Description:
By secondary structure, the protein is mainly beta. Helices cover 6% and strands 39% of the residues. The chain is built from 2 helices and 11 strands, in the order αββββββββββαβ. It has helices at 12-16, 142-146, and strands spanning 34-36, 44-61, 71-72, 76-78, 81-83, 86-88, 99-103, 107-110, 119-122, 135-141, 158-172. A 5-stranded antiparallel beta sheet has the order 1-2-11-8-9, with no helix packed on it. The protein is elongated and about 60 Å long.
Amino acid sequence: MTKRGFTHLISLETFNDPSNGYLVEDTCYFGAEVFVSKNHGEGECLSMTKGPVSCSHTWKIEKFSLLCEKQYSKEFSVADFPWKILLYPRGDSKEKDRSLSFISGPCLRVKDQIRDIHWDHQAKRWFDKTGYSWGWAEFMPLSSLKDKSKGFLVNDLCIVEAHIQFIGVVNNLS
């Protein structure tokens, strides 16, 4: 739309010139602040970080076979924001005694401690403080988790990794 925004930001010649640093190894990163107006005086502002902030967190769960109820990982920080992983070791209400269930996780992996063939799922979505109510009810069948030849439980230890890429923050303007 030419009514809002820029019709011409920089010339293509300037953009393509490697000495200017806009295009490096055929890669360019763009950032934007987007203002969404819901009503007069209300809205949201998306502030992007200068570059993605990536973080990995490893959760070592000992005495896994003794767990019955939901478990939370210790809190960890990504870009100064607190995170926790919620695990249902015997499955949530939909998958009780059939699957390992995770709630509130971005990219999660259960590590294969023997063969290095991990079990993982990746979510591509935005998270907010209320985003704890979604996840994977059927993350992994308990039969696979307990199969000793697969190496997901070794000496009653289960290792879970979370990989998070943080790109920005949405703030209310009201």
